[in-house]
Amino acid sequence: MARDVTLLAQTELGEVTEGRPGGSSSMPHKRNPIAAVSALAAAAQAPGLVATLLAAMPQELQRAAGGWHAEWRPLRDLLVATGSAAAWLRACLEGLVVHPDRMRANLPPGPVDVGGAGELVDRVLS
Questions:
Q1: What gap in Å lies between CA 58 and CA 19, rounded to an integer?
Q2: Average pLDDT value over all residues in the chain
Q3: 25-31 long-range CB contacts below 8 Å, 24 or more apart?
Q4: Is 104 among the residues known to form the active site?
Q5: Which one of 33, 58, 78, 90 has the largest count of C-beta atoms within 10 Å of its C-beta?
Q6: Quick check: is 102 catalytic?
Q7: Burial of 11 (0-12, 13-18, 19+ CB in 10 A)
Q8: Where exactly are the structural domains of the chain?
């Protein structure tokens, strides 16, 4: 969701804005989706931390040879990063403003071909 917000909030699209966006020091007219960007930054830490946890999985019989010791810091950091990402995403979504007029303006003129989306939705809802 945070990635979608950052993309939809780009100046070129302007389809959403955060309730309390951050400004830009070099471009004062710009409104940056700070909460969404912060959620992405926290989430980006997860793969490396999970890799360490996966590497620590092998456990020797009746002897701790470093595997479970290696889990302590990355597990703690993963929980902190996850909590941070969730908190930032909540802040982002609580104040999110959707601009349907901009969404409409960004659509191509004429009928929009949605492919088989209508049929898929009908199947799921039946």
A1: 46
A2: 89
A3: none
A4: no
A5: 33
A6: no
A7: exposed
A8: 2-125
Mean of the pLDDT values across residues 76-101?
Answer: 96
- Cα distance between residue 32 and residue 22, in whole Å: 5
Q: 2-125 — its CATH code?
A: 1.20.200.10
The whole-angstrom separation of Cα 29 and Cα 27 is: 6
- Of residues 55 and 114, more confidence is placed in 55
The catalytically annotated residue of 3, 20, 38, 63 is: 63
Per-residue burial over 78-87, b = 16 or more CB atoms within 10 Å of its CB, e = otherwise? beebeebbee
Residues 24 and 37 sit within 8 Å (Cβ to Cβ): no
Q: Annotated catalytic residue: which of 3, 24, 73, 76?
A: 24
| pTM for this model (two decimals) | 0.77
